[in-house]
Amino acid sequence: MRSWTGTGTGFPSPSFDVIGVASTIIDYAGNLYNYAMESYFGRVNLSWKDRYVLTGTLRTDGSSKFARDYRWGWFPSVSFGWNISNEEFMADSSTDLKFRISYGKTGNQEGIGTFAYQAQMSGGMNYNEQSGIYVTEFGNNSLTWEKADQFDVGFDMSFLDDRITVILDGYMKNTTDLLYSMPVHSTTGTTSIISNVGSMRNVGAELTLGTSFNLGPVHWSSQLNIATNKNKITSLTGNDDEPVAIGSNRALQVGKEMGAFYLFKHNGLFQYDAEVPDEQYAQGRRAGDIRWLDVDGNGIINDDDRVVMGSSNPDFFGGWSNTFSWKGLSLDIFFTYMYGNDVYSGQETNMTRLSHKNGLQYVNAVNRWTGPGTTNVWPRALNGDNNNYRNSDFYLHDGSFIRLRTLTLAYRFPSHLLQKIHMISRPVSPCGNISGRSVRG
């Protein structure tokens, strides 16, 4: 195996293996990866009367994953905090109140290859028993950092001598120059090219409410958290707002969330053969088959009839923890919850297939269409046809839940009782002695 490495720019030039360029390969293995990142940053902190705090940071990073003219990114940030409780007008108040606001820019280079900006070739192509090479990646000399600008604002509050605490945060994050393998026509010799494809916006808020009270002899402490986040794609380079497919059931589209579902829409069943459009009838569609939404109205169901729908992101989510203590007894209860998200059950494409011999769902077999009016949901039994099992909203389900994550009942025995039955050790001193006696090996 031979390789070469060039230098002179402060960053490693690509190295490649030539072990697999023969026209006929029996067996081989080998790889070589190397990249570098160089960073500098400075920070300034200012504080006045324990009331106002200002912090500013400037950072720059250079990565060998990008071409020389695009490898450096500049990422500033600034934050301001105001301790309102220390103001004179709050002197007689038992409320603790803090305000904070910040802005920061960050960069991302993860998720792309070590030499993503460079055109790449691979050996091992057999041209009539003559060894050859072929293009595997086009490369992109203008590839650069994915950048995110985030604004945050928040309040920290406590009341009744910290018996009640409230933390409220809101943010807006604008991500530009998104790094993504943009699909290209396969006639070019490959199917995608790493590019900065567009921009996205995330807006969210989070509320945390904590309590600590005595309910007679029982002490109750709790913490409730609720959060929400909404994102949408705000631009896609070279796109006229049409969906860009990702895999078999996702898509990117301006105005929609990142990775929204891209599916065929289930529109009931054909109850009679006469209802089937001629174009689909010629393809074998009959009564009892699923009536898919024909988006373009041409009578044929194909990928052009998929629809961007649903959301993997919940409307809100969070957790709720409670601890009840009485003497040595304590009860801990912790719930998590999520509401408003959709889950795509990909395994159901086989489990609902009536010609499938493994793991068939009972409800599909028993409730299947057997004649006009028997059902408008479950298709007929049919062997060897995939029309009824397309990636569709038929397999899209509500993912909302509330779940008891932990339930713990514990009792803490008094230490004096444990000492009597020799179940508790005496404290160890910092110098390694137990109760003043030296420990010797």
Brief summary:
It is built from four helices and 23 strands. It has helices at residues 278-281, 348-351, 362-366, 415-420, and strands at residues 37-48, 52-63, 72-83, 96-108, 120-127, 130-137, 146-159, 164-176, 179-183, 192-196, 198-215, 218-236, 244-246, 250-252, 260-263, 266-269, 290-292, 307-309, 316-326, 329-339, 342-344, 396-398, 401-411.
**Fraction in helix:** under 10%
Q: Number of helix segments?
A: 4
Question: What distance separates the N and C termini?
Answer: 55 Å
Q: Uncertain runs with pLDDT below 50, 5 residues or more?
A: 1-16, 430-441
Instruction: Kindly state the number of beta strands.
Output: 23
Q: Quote the beta fraction.
A: 35-45%
Structural class: mainly beta
Alpha-carbon Rg, integer: 31 Å
Q: Looking at the structure, what is the overall shape?
A: extended
* Largest sheet geometry: 11 strands, antiparallel
| Major beta sheet, strand line-up | 1-2-3-4-7-8-11-12-19-20-23
Give the helices and strands as they follow along the chain.
Answer: EEEEEEEEEEEEEEEEHEEEEEHHEEH
**Please, what is the average pLDDT?**
84
